[in-house]
Queue: 2 jobs
Job 1
Amino acid sequence: MKDWDRWTKVEKLKFFLSGKYYGAPLYVYENQKALPRFRIENDDKEISGTIRTILYKPDKIEIDALASKGSYLIAAINYYPFWEISVNGKATAADKYFGTFMKINLEEENNSVLLEYRPPYKLF
């Protein structure tokens, strides 16, 4: 690597993409026990339900959820008061879940959930 400082960015990139690199090895781990982004719970227990993400953008999320009576959607997204939420077209509020995530009450059967992030400083 004595000529490393003379190489162009393209040459350096080709070197790394060829599988060669110097320094400590890089490891990527997958946590297979991590919670999903969205899940359905009833009485603090995960239940089987169908969740389908229709749209996922940083400021707008659309979800279809099939749930039983008394269920709620857990969104592993930070709770902020600027999230506007509607379930089946009706405005609703999210509760905090474990102090940081969002808990949204669902109706029995099919639910169309819309989350929109609308802070007061957002212009468009």
Job 2
Amino acid sequence: MVKKIESELSLYIPAYNAEKTITKCLNSILAQTYKPKKIIVINDCSEDDTEKILKSFDNQIDVINNIKNLGVSHSMNLAINHLTTRYIGKIDADVELDKHWAELLLKKMQEEKITLIGGKMYEKYINNPYNYWRSIRLKQNWGEYSILNPKFVFGCNNILDTKNLDKKNLYRDDLSYFRTNGEDIEISNYLKKRGHKLFYFSDAICNHLQNDDAISLSNRYWRYIHYGDGLKKRNLIKTIKNCFRQFKKFIKFSFIDFINFRLSLVKVNFFILYYFIIIDFRFYKSNEK
């Protein structure tokens, strides 16, 4: 029998310059059918009005303000060790949860004895072609069907059962990759190697509130490629090869979009290629000094 365990759940949100989305994110958490025992926001030295917005939630949430920007992995370790409940959920500051999200994930965790579980995230502002492009080529879900032990559980929305885990320094932050981008793959591999079960539950829905333009999406895509490449040291030849690979992807993406009548994305492909080359050469020159 599945028991109601909402009193054993806490949620946390790492936040950096999240003024545009943090209100919707927190309101969606407060509206959950399973009410978390505690909600904590780690404000990673935001330079916008994030801190001011957090104060407006008064006693509904706890806030930890980092005195300098330390990265998402540091904030995650801080939250994990601050919270005392068995189940700890992590939500990105630009994610809005369906009201049944926590209830569905907790029940599935009990039924299947899952250690780390995540739901399905949709892009909310799909009419924007840059967001539409991201929903196809940088999507943060594994599709329409639930999966036991997926390749990894996405870090944007998940719940961790900490019962049999050593929480101290659970997330790496020794390299910029782990400080900014690699925590979901790292923790998934860590748990799998130790015999823990992971689960992707497509019934637990949330929405991505990020709203990109050509430059922000190009920077996002460049970071995705750069970190995925393992932070390899660059020289001029490698930079040229990297840009040529992206040119071939531009041709491939544009052909696929054209035959699928996604003509608005052909323009997006061009902008991403253009800005990617600029960003990549700037990165090479800055590291050449």
